[in-house]
Structure formats: structure tokens, C-alpha cells
Specification:
- The protein has 369 residues and is of the alpha/beta class.
- 38% of the residues lie in helices and 20% in strands.
- The protein is built from twelve helices and 13 strands.
- The strands form three sheets. The chain has a seven-stranded parallel sheet. It has a three-stranded antiparallel sheet with strand order 1-2-3. Strands 4-13-12 form a three-stranded antiparallel sheet, with no helix packed on it.
- Strand 2 and strand 3 form a beta hairpin.
- Helix 2 packs antiparallel against helix 3 and helix 10 packs parallel to helix 11.
- It binds [(2S)-5-oxo-2,5-dihydrofuran-2-yl]acetic acid and magnesium ion.
- Magnesium ion binds next to loops.
Length: 369
């Protein structure tokens, strides 16, 4: 039933350097999976990551190799199975590789929901909203440039919540940068920071004290991935939201974090969760534990962004909105009709499947040969 499974690496420059504690991006490598069935349907998935191996354990190249060597030959033998059975066989035969698994699952769900004539969100339990709030990440590395960029976004009604990437400079310098931006934008504008695991617990206490006093709303992943004890103590100690990002990598880790009260908010990412269905399970666990939700991104292009949007549309609690701005950070669009960002929100497509149409000629021109 599956005729071909292709992995395409598509290099697209960013609109400006995107500086994070884990990497500085000038180009994003989109990792796109295209699954074609014998009866002519095409499903898309995405396994994009950040900074090669700088962010996660899978790189664009490892995803491509592992899909071509292990996933594709196995998938071709599973044509008669439904998606649950297919993913069960894949999980029994292939360890780890959450990004690749997410991309494959997305493409299979895209195909399945095209057959059913339903938006993908409808097989994930059903959407509760057609639009989701989207913040913008200020990461030019320069305070004045960041303020100008934010003011432009607010005036254009594109974004009115901002996340700042910190952690690569001394704590005092980072705090000064954040609070200068907070002051310039005023008390109505929500400012959050993402430390990308760069602080020791002591530095986190020092930094968060100053950021909380300055009116910052949320601190994302202050400490190391496996330092759950520090995350737990910081969550207890401070009144502002402490969000788990890199420490959250699928339902099992969500359960551990929830059990230990090691975060007040979860940044749910579909690839980090290992699939769209698993991301929904993380959302359910958060609900049961009274943990707020935020829709995260791996700075994917439109495929991963819209797959994530279908997931987040089903969350009853999306208290901290989303950061599904990935396609807006890129200089080129790969869709025939661009995604609709307006009034500080992203509109979720209503067509069958993912509900987007890729421009394959453009992708062909930009893909790594
Ligand atoms: C992260 O750690 O949250 C999301 C937005 C952004 O700028 O970087 C990513 C990764
Ligand atoms: Mg983060």
C-alpha cells in the first residue's frame, strides 16, 4: 500500500540570525517526510530540529539515514495495518528516534484523514478552536534591535507576547537585556524567557529573583534536562510560571515531571513527544495534574507547524498560547497558499488532512541534493 517514503532536507535561510544558548541559526534545515500510497495519496510529515545535534539527539542527517535504512523498508511491509498497529510494530522494532517517528505518524495521519475527508484534528479527539495565539521569539542578540522588532510586530497585530532567548551571557547581563525590553514594551506586554537549560540552580535562583521582580511571566527550562530536583525546587520557590521544555520528551517524562511537581507549565512539542498522538497524551496528563499548557515548536516549517496546530487545537487548556511562528522565521515559503497569521493568531486549516498544499517545485529547487 505504501509506494514510497522519501526524506527531503530543505535548506532555507532565516530572516535574521536566531541566537539561542544552544546554537545560532542562520539557516534552518527542514526535514520533510513524503509518503505516497499505491492509490496515489500523498501524506507529509516533518522531523525538523534545531542546530544539527545542538538541541536534540537526532540530526537532519540521522533522521534521513534512519528513515531510509530502517523505517521505510519496515513501513512497506505494514500496508494492511491501521495506524495504531503500524506505530506499535515500528515502536517494537525501532528504539528512540522520536522526531522520525513523529514525522512518519504525521504523514500516516495526513493520509488517513484525507481518506476520511476530515481535518487531522478530528481523529485526535476533535478541535476546540480554529485559531490559536502565537507569540514571537526575540533572539537577534541585540537589545535595541529586539525592541524595534517587537514594536513592529505589535503594530502589525502579528504578535503581542514575546519570548526572549537567554543563557549564553552572564546572568546579570541577560537580566539587564530582558528588563530593558520589558520596560520599553510596557506592562501590558507579556515577556517570557527561555534559558535553554544553561543555568545552574544557583544562577537560576539569582536570575529568576530579578526577572520575577521585573515583571517577567514565565521561565522556560532554566536548568539541565535531567535536573528534575532543581526544576521542582524552583517551581516551589517562585510565584511565576516555571515551564519544562527539554525535560519533557514524551508521556513517560510528563508523568515523572507531574508526579514530582517539577513544572507549572508544559511546553508540548510534537517531535519531542514522539508523535501527535503522544503529544495529546502529554496534554491529557498535564490536565489531570493541573499543569498548564503551552504549544511549543522545534522551529519547524509549515508541515510541522500545522501538525502541531491540529494537536493544540484539541487542548482544553492552552493557558500560555503557542509559539508556532516557525514559518515566519524563514525567508521562503514552501506552501502554495501561505499560512494565515492575523490578529495575533494562526488560523488552523479546515480542509481534509493537514489542510495545506506544498509547492513541490520550490521544494525541489531548495532541497539538498
Ligand atoms: C526552544 O527551546 O523553545 C522554540 C522557539 C525558539 O526560538 O526556539 C525554539 C526552541
Ligand atoms: Mg525552549
Amino acid at each position: 500500500m505504501y509506494k514510497s517514503i522519501e526524506t527531503l532536507l530543505v535548506e532555507i535561510p532565516t530572516i535574521r540570525p536566531h541566537k539561542m544558548a544552544v546554537a545560532t541559526m542562520q539557516t534552518q534545515t527542514l526535514v520533510l517526510i513524503k509518503v505516497t500510497t499505491e492509490d496515489g495519496l500523498v501524506g507529509w510529515g516533518e522531523a525538523t530540529t534545531i542546530g544539527g545535534l545542538g538541541y536534540a539527539e537526532e540530526s537532519p542527517e540521522s533522521v534521513k539515514t534512519n528513515i531510509e535504512t530502517y523505517f521505510a523498508p519496515l513501513l512497506k511491509t505494514l500496508g494492511a495495518m491501521n495506524i495504531a498497529q503500524t506505530m506499535q510494530v515500528i515502536n517494537r522494532n525501532i528504539n528512540g528516534n522520536r522526531f522520525a517517528k513523529c514525522a512518519i505518524q504525521t504523514a500516516l495521519l495526513d493520509i488517513q484523514t484525507q481518506r476520511l475527508g476530515l481535518p487531522l484534528s478530528e481523529v485526535l479527539g476533535g478541535r476546540l478552536r480554529d485559531r490559536i495565539p502565537v507569540l514571537w521569539v526575540l533572539a537577534s542578540g541585540n537589545t535595541e534591535k529586539d525592541i524595534a522588532e517587537a514594536e513592529k510586530m505589535i503594530a502589525a497585530k502579528r504578535h503581542n507576547i514575546f519570548k526572549l532567548k537567554i543563557g549564553s551571557r552572564p546572568v546579570e547581563q541577560d537580566v539587564e537585556h530582558v528588563l530593558t525590553i520589558k520596560k520599553a514594551l510596557g506592562s501590558d506586554i507579556s515577556i517570557r524567557v527561555d534559558v535553554n537549560r544553561a543555568w545552574s540552580e544557583l544562577n537560576a535562583i539569582k536570575g529568576i529573583q530579578m526577572l520575577q521582580a521585573g515583571g517577567v511571566d514565565l521561565i522556560e527550562q532554566p536548568c539541565a534536562i535531567h535536573n528534575i530536583d532543581a526544576m521542582q525546587r524552583l517551581t516551589r520557590k517562585f510565584d511565576l510560571a516555571i515551564m519544562a521544555d527539554e525535560s519533557l520528551f514524551g508521556p513517560q517524562s510528563a508523568y515523572e515531571l507531574a508526579k514530582r511537581n517539577a513544572a507549572s507549565v508544559f511546553a508540548v512539542k510534537v517531535a519531542q513527544s514522539g508523535g501527535l498522538i503522544e503529544a495529546c497524551e502529554v496534554g491529557k496528563l498535564a490536565n489531570l495534574a493541573g499543569i498548564d499548557l503551552y504549544g511549543g515548536t522545534m522551529l519547524e516549517g509549515p508541515v510541522g507547524t500545522i501538525a502541531s496546530a491540529h494537536v493544540f487545537s484539541t487542548f482544553s487548556n492552552l493557558a500560555y498560547g503557542t509559539e508556532l511562528f516557525g514559518p515566519l522565521l524563514l525567508t521562503e515559503d514552501i506552501l502554495k497558499t501561505p499560512l494565515q497569521y492575523e490578529n495575533f493568531e494562526l488560523k488552523i486549516p479546515t480542509g481534509a488532512g493537514l489542510g495545506i498544499e506544498l509547492d513541490e517545485d520550490k521544494i525541489d529547487n531548495m532541497r539538498r541534493q
